[in-house]
Design a protein that fits this description.
Order of helices and strands: HHHHHHEHEEHEHEHEHEHEHEHHH
Number of strands: 9
Number of domains: 2
Strand content: 5-15%
Oligomer: single chain
CATH class of the largest domain: Alpha Beta
Number of helices: 16
Length: 331
């Protein structure tokens, strides 16, 4: 007797969750498997050689995949544990999976969420920047959050020390909704100093992570979560950053996702702001510290946002020559 549609859907979600948990299998490879075999059930009916011969697969990855059915009890226990912790597990075809993120080619196959907010608007804007910002850039960040909240936008950031936490705090103080994306699992708040801030975000907004299992904030995980920050957002605003700052990764992902990037144009070029100057040179839309209303006006009419590339094509190619990003896109 064939399983009911409800039972089949449950099994499909369990298999997707299990696939996303396999070491070396990212969202791009999972899509590749589904394209080749048609469904999660058919993936596990395949011969090991059929999987191993797919581009970017090998015998080891195929073996890991085909052992998943033997782990279903463990998988179900983990899903129950997450539910008991108040963590929702969203798959790409779920109605509550954020629509803007869903359109990103390497969107997480499984996205974990905790918090009050369940429906994420497409009017989301990311604000990111330096870990140790200047007073002036904090003022710009707070000014942006007030204006964005008044215009009905949600603010997305990464809970990091500096501009990120100012974006979250400013949004909350303006009685707006803010969303945080963590590089760890949701049972671990990183950085720990922002536990109270995370709790406030939980009360009116939500926190996301693609990591259902305990995960440490490694440099690679910090980079990868930035594609989710930009993917959730219709545009990314970089307030202040060095060329080596984590905000540069978010801006690069946004441009790879064909989303507008704004960068504040500071008068004096220094190490603290050379990243925003570089982004402007590569095509980001510039704005001055006293042009915050202009930024919001453009966001309300996104079709009118235009890039302003001043650099050569070779320089623009350099913007995407990031090994961390490229290694993930190959997954």
């Amino acid at each position: 007797m064939p399983p009911s549609s409800e039972a089949a859907e449950k099994r499909h979600r369990e298999y997707l969750f299990a696939l996303a948990s396999v070491e070396g299998i990212g969202p791009v490879r999972i899509k590749q498997l589904l394209t080749r075999f048609g469904s999660t059930e058919q993936i596990f009916d395949a011969e090991i050689v059929e999987i191993a011969q797919l581009p970017q697969f090998n015998h080891t990855l195929a073996l890991r995949i085909l052992t998943i059915p033997n782990r279903l009890v463990e998988i179900r226990q983990k899903l129950d544990e997450l539910a008991d912790q108040g963590i929702a597990v969203l798959c790409l075809d779920d109605s509550e999976y954020p629509s803007l993120l869903k359109s990103v080619p390497d969107a997480p196959t499984v996205l974990c969420r905790t918090g009050t907010l369940t429906e994420v608007s497409e009017k989301c804007v990311a604000i990111v920047g330096a870990r140790y910002p200047t007073v002036e850039s904090i003022d710009v960040t707070l000014g942006l959050t007030i204006r964005l909240v008044e215009a009905g936008f949600m603010v997305v950031s990464g809970l990091a020390i500096g501009i990120d936490s100012a974006a979250h705090s400013g949004t909350l103080e303006a009685n707006g909704t803010t969303i945080s994306v963590l590089p760890t699992d949701l049972s671990t708040i990183y950085p720990t100093v922002h536990y109270t801030l995370a709790r406030k975000i939980f009360e009116t907004g939500c926190l996301y992570s693609e990591n259902p299992y305990p995960t440490s904030p490694t440099p690679a995980n910090l980079v990868l979560r930035n594609r989710i920050i930009s993917g959730l957002s219709m545009a990314t605003i970089v307030v202040e950053t060095s060329k080596e700052g984590g905000a540069m990764h978010t801006a690069r992902y946004a441009q790879l996702q064909d989303r507008p990037v704004f960068a504040c144009k500071w008068g004096a070029k220094n190490e603290q702001s050379d990243g925003t100057h570089h982004l402007i040179k590569m095509g980001a839309t510039p704005f001055l510290p006293d042009q915050l209303d202009k930024v919001v006006d453009m966001l309300e009419e996104p079709d009118n946002i235009q890039n302003h590339p001043d650099g050569s094509s070779a320089e623009q190619i350099e913007l995407f020559e990031d090994k961390d990003i490229q290694s993930h896109l190959d997954l």
